[in-house]
Design goal:
By secondary structure, this protein is an all-alpha fold. It contains 6 helices and no strands.
Length: 137
């Protein structure tokens, strides 16, 4: 069984966030590939896709609505990427992969050869969510 990071850590930890906020941010990151797919589907032509459909009829320019949707998805994807890059230049890509796919340290060590120990990884993992929390406020 894979080791899972505890959602609750000591409030004395420098990267402390509440358990509920941690879960909220974790699920936010797991939506990354849904956003990427929806962003790619928005090509400027009317679509019947569930993920990009604008539900209420809105007066105005459809191109503007599509541009707003693209900016919405792009902003969210960029938040996750920037937080991963700001976490650590070497471990950041591994953390990005972990938070967007739900991978554990053991998976990253076995499949990708992550170049750090478990303690360093989970400290940076917490730092990632702390940075994302600051960016989302």
């Amino acid at each position: 069984m894979a080791t899972k990071i505890r959602p609750e850590i000591s409030a004395k930890n420098r990267y402390w966030i509440s358990r509920q906020r941690f879960y909220e941010l974790r699920h936010f990151c797991l939506q990354y590939w849904e956003w990427a797919k929806a962003y790619a589907e928005l090509d400027g032509y009317p679509s019947q896709s569930y993920s990009t459909e604008i539900r209420s009829p809105q007066p105005g320019d459809p191109t503007e609505r599509i541009a707003e949707r693209k900016l919405y998805f792009q902003y969210r994807m960029e938040l996750v990427k920037k937080a991963a890059r700001a976490t650590d230049p070497v471990i950041g890509p591994y953390i990005f992969k972990a938070v967007t796919h739900g991978y554990s340290y053991e998976h990253l060590r076995a499949k990708d050869g992550i170049p750090c120990c478990k303690n360093v990884y989970y400290d940076l993992y917490r730092k990632f969510f702390w940075l994302l929390d600051k960016a989302r406020k």
